[in-house]
Write a structure and sequence with these properties.
- This protein has a single domain, classed as Purple Acid Phosphatase, chain A, domain 2.
- The protein is built from five helices and 13 strands.
- Helix 1 packs parallel to helix 2 and helix 4 packs parallel to helix 5.
- The two termini are about 20 Å apart.
């Protein structure tokens, strides 16, 4: 399975570049992980793929509404895409998203997408080195036991572990994740062409 995860594209002019990359790679899952403004036309084009999106702090409300209309908005939801179960926690109301997701205690996820990082994992914000992770995310990981956690708001592109679960911090990059072996490749947004 190939996952293409994207975070931090705030320039709609990069939307067509992302669309070309997605067409070329044809991933099993395209995850827009918050703060991704590729333009409404491109978002519609990307919805032809297996697309999920969570809200970010700087996402336009009309853009989020369009994602909901396209049945791609994942905030507080679990969707099944074939044999892949994906859940999401956006920036708009992460506590409510976690509460909704963890009510499904018997439901194991394959992929959990979170705007915020878990507490103590990929959550140190520079330049002040303040921890920005949320304990709610740790709870969701502990209860839902996903195979992988994708985090939008990490401060660098890297991987770590939380509660024994692999965590991929996107850090304003495009990440290509291959499962089950967890092969990772990060492409800086500026080079995604």
């Amino acid at each position: 399975m190939i996952i293409l995860a994207v975070s931090g594209i705030r320039n709609p002019n990069l939307g067509p570049l992302l669309a070309r990359l997605v067409s070329r790679l044809n991933p099993d899952l395209l995850a827009l992980c918050g703060d991704v403004n590729v333009g409404k036309h491109v978002l519609r084009e990307l919805s032809l793929f297996r697309l999920v999106m969570i809200s970010g702090e700087s996402d336009d409300i009309y853009y989020v509404k369009l994602a909901k209309e396209l049945n791609a908005l994942l905030d507080g939801r679990v969707v099944e895409l074939g044999d892949i179960r994906v859940g999401g926690m956006g920036a708009a109301n992460p506590l409510q998203d976690v509460q909704t997701l963890t009510l499904r205690r018997g439901s194991r996820l394959d992929i959990l997408v979170s705007y915020f990082p878990p507490s103590g994992c990929l959550d140190i914000a520079s330049p002040l080195y303040i921890r920005t992770g949320l304990k709610y995310v740790n709870t969701a990981v502990r209860v839902l036991r996903p195979r992988i956690l994708l985090v939008s708001r990490s401060w660098k592109s890297t991987a770590s572990y939380c509660e024994g679960v692999p965590v991929v911090g996107l850090g304003r990059c495009v990440a290509i994740v291959k499962l089950p072996d967890l092969e990772l490749r990060f492409i800086p947004i500026s080079l995604a062409s």
